Amino acid sequence: MVKLVFPKDFLWGTATASYQIEGAWNEDGKGESTWDRFSHTPGAIYQNQNGDVACDHYHRYEEDVKLMAEIGLKAYRFSISWPRIFPEGRGKINPKGVSFYERLINKLLEKNIKPAITLYHWDLPQALEDKGGWLNRDTAKYFSEYASFIFYKFGDMVPIWITLNEPFVNAFLGYAWGWHAPGKKDLKGAFVAGHNLLLAHGLAVQAYKEGGYNGNIGITINVAAVYPYTNSEEDLRAVQVQDAFENRWFIEPIFRKKYPEVIWKILEKNYLSFDFPISDFDIISSPIDFLGINYYTRNIVAHDESNKFLGLKRIEGPNERTEMGWEIYPDGLYDILIQLYRDYKIPIYITENGAAYNDKLENGKVEDNKRIEYLREHIKRAYFAIRDGVDLRGYFIWSLMDNFEWAHGYSKRFGIIYVDYDTQKRILKDSAYFYKKVIEENGIEE
Ligand SMILES: OC[C@@H]1[C@@H](O)[C@H](O)[C@@H](O)c2nc(CNc3ccccc3)cn21
C-alpha cells in the first residue's frame, strides 16, 4: 500500500454552522433569525422540526471542543449567528452573544485548534428580513458593520475568515424556490439577493483589509463538477450553462468583475432585469486570499429544449448515492479543483465535504463504514489535486457532529460524531477514529 502524505501544514478540520448546532434560539439576548422564523412555520421543515435546541452547542461547547481535541483537529470551521451579536441586525450589541464566541474561540486556541469563522451561514437577523432582507441593498452595508465589529473583537485571534457560505444556495433556495428561509418564490428576487450578498462580501473584505488584520479572508462557494450526458455539441453546451449557473455565478464577479453571460441570458429569457451601479464590481472584486469550496457530488447534464429555464436536464449518475440522494463521485472533486485552480490561480480550502448516512448506534458504537469510504476516496482526490499542482490548503469534513439539516430537520446525519438528540449524548463514530488516524499520519493509504 502506498502512503499519500499531505504537505506539512495541511489543515485538517471539520465544519458546522450556528443555526444547525447551537440551539438557545432566544436565549441570553439573541434576536430572532430568518431560520428561527422559517423553521417555526408549519410545513416548512420535516416533521415540523426546528433548531430551537439542535445540538445544544451553546451550552455544551466546552465538551464539544474537548471532542475536537480528542480527534486531533487542526482547525474548526463554525459560523457566528449575526442576531446573537446584533439582535436587531445593527445598533444594540448583545454582550452575552459576544461572550459566547469569545469563550468558544479561547477554548479552541487553548487546544491548538485554529478557528475558521464563517460570518454568515444563512441565519439573517429577522429584523433585517422585515426590512427586505437581501432584497434590500442596505443589508449589504449592515453586514459590513457587523463584520467590522466581529473583526474588531476577534480579528487578531482568528486566522481564517469566510464572509459568506454558499450565496447561490441562500439566494436560490431562499428567494427563488422557497425551500429555505425566508421562503420566497420570486426568480428576480434571487438575482437581486445574490447581487446584494456579493456586495456584502466585498464590503466585508474591504473592512478586513482596511483593519490590517494578519489572517486570511475568502468566501465559500458550493460547487458540483459537471459532465455531459453525451459528447454532442448540445450536451457540451449544456455543461457550460450548468457550470456557469451553479459554479461560476458567484465566482466570476469576484475574479473577473462580471456575471457569466448565462446569467444575463436567464434574466433576458424570463423578461427580467435588475439595475445596480457597475461600480459594485469594484467592491465585489476586492482581492481575497483564498477560495473555499463545498463539494458533495457531481451533475450530469443533457440538452433539453423543453426546459425553458436553462435548456438542460440533469441525468442521474450510475454510482451509489448517499442518504441525500447525491451520487458519490470522488473524481468530481479532483476535476473541479483542477478547473478552478487553472482558471483563478488562488489558494483553495475544501470548506465542506461529507456524506449523510442512516447511522445506527449499536452497543455504544456507530460503524459508519460507508462514510469512511466516502471520506477516504475524496481525501485521495484532494491529494492527487495537490500532486498535480493545486494550491490546496485544507480539508473540512461536513460535519463535526450530526445536526439540523435545514428542510430535512434531524433526519439526515452528516456528523463524524453521533448525537443522541434525546439525551444530547455525543458518541464518536468509527469515521471520527478514521479521521484521527488521517490527521496523525497527515495522509492516507492509497
Ligand atoms: O447538506 C449538507 C450541507 C449543509 O448542512 C450545510 O449547511 C451547507 O453549507 C451545505 N451545502 C451543501 C451543498 N450545497 C447544497 C445544494 C443544494 C441544497 C443545499 C445545499 C451541502 N451542505
UniProtKB/TrEMBL annotation:
InterPro entries, per the entry: GH, GH_1_N_CS, Glyco_hydro_1, Glyco_hydro_1_AS, Glyco_hydro_1_beta-glucosidase
Active-site residues, Swiss-Prot/TrEMBL: E166, E352
Molecular function GO terms recorded: beta-glucosidase activity
Reactions performed catalytically: Hydrolysis of terminal, non-reducing beta-D-glucosyl residues with release of beta-D-glucose
Example GO BP: carbohydrate catabolic process
Top EC class of this enzyme: hydrolase
Cellular-component GO terms for this entry: cytosol
Entry-linked Gene3D superfamilies: Glycosidases (3.20.20.80)
Keyword Hydrolase: yes
EC assignment: 3.2.1.21
Keywords: Carbohydrate metabolism, Cellulose degradation, Glycosidase, Hydrolase, Polysaccharide degradation
Pfam assignment, any one: Glyco_hydro_1
Record: residues binding substrate: Q20, H121, N165, Y296, W398, E405, W406
Family affiliation: Belongs to the glycosyl hydrolase 1 family.
Xref: NCBIfam families: BGL (TIGR03356)
Protein name as it appears in the record: Beta-glucosidase
Biological source species: Dictyoglomus turgidum (strain DSM 6724 / Z-1310)
